[in-house]
Amino acid sequence: MRKLLASFSLVAIGCMMPPQGAALVQQTAQQFNFDTRFGRMEMAVEQVAPKYSGDFAKKHRFWGSSIHVTDAETTGMKMKGPQDADVGVRIGWYRIEEGDLHTTLVKQHWHLYPSGWLLDAEDRTDGDIGALGENVKIIAPDGPVRSAQFPTIRLGTD
What we know:
Blueprint: H1 2-15, H2 22-37, H3 41-44, H4 53-59, E1 67-79, E2 84-95, E3 102-113, E4 116-127
Antiparallel strand pairs: 1-2, 2-3, 3-4
């Protein structure tokens, strides 16, 4: 009976172990992108390395105001040794004044510090420009915008 109880205790303790290594960086990156997607930047900056925090603030300064993020999906992860990892993220977003949906692919570089996994850098690898604070000139039409709908025709009225 004691052997059964001891083995059950070891199994239970093993199941409660927190994630480590690749699983931990993946969980950290997913939570980070979940927080940025919903505009919880005060929680997200806790996962940003101090050396990158200024650039992070510049790149994400329009998120939640003129840029609305609709989705942030982790597309892949590659360990670059025991303390470095690259995480791919697909970001769906639109500018409030336009309403056109854009997609940008971003590569995030994560590093394991004594305090845990922190974001060291992120760069756009593909997709639309503008999600990470790039300077984009928006060109508006010169005159009034013509309606894309056909004119309404009412039958049976004079």
